[in-house]
Design brief:
- By secondary structure, this protein is an all-alpha fold.
- It has one domain.
- 61% of the residues lie in helices and 0% in strands.
- It is built from 3 helices and no strands.
- Helix 2 packs antiparallel against helix 3.
Length: 77
């Protein structure tokens, strides 16, 4: 379950799903967060291995990305 504001609102979830494959908005948000976590880890690995960015700096960059993608200061719509 996602805490705080999630950019994938109930209204957007309703637009994405179809009548044949209904999906719970919380499940959709959990899937989106899982995918973001996978992408963030891949991005961090790219920063470290391909660009030579120190691990602590790469981790800070990924943390900043996560905070921008999943703000936690507003309520779900």
């Amino acid at each position: 379950m996602t805490k705080g504001f999630h950019p994938l609102t109930d209204e957007i979830c309703d637009q994405i799903q179809d009548s044949i494959h209904p999906c719970d908005p919380e499940d959709m948000r959990a899937a989106a967060d899982w995918q973001l976590a996978q992408d963030a880890e891949s991005f961090k690995n790219f920063l470290v291995t391909a660009l030579g960015v120190p691990l602590d700096t790469a981790s800070l960059a990924v943390q900043s990305l996560w905070e921008r993608m999943r703000p936690s200061t507003e309520e779900n719509n």
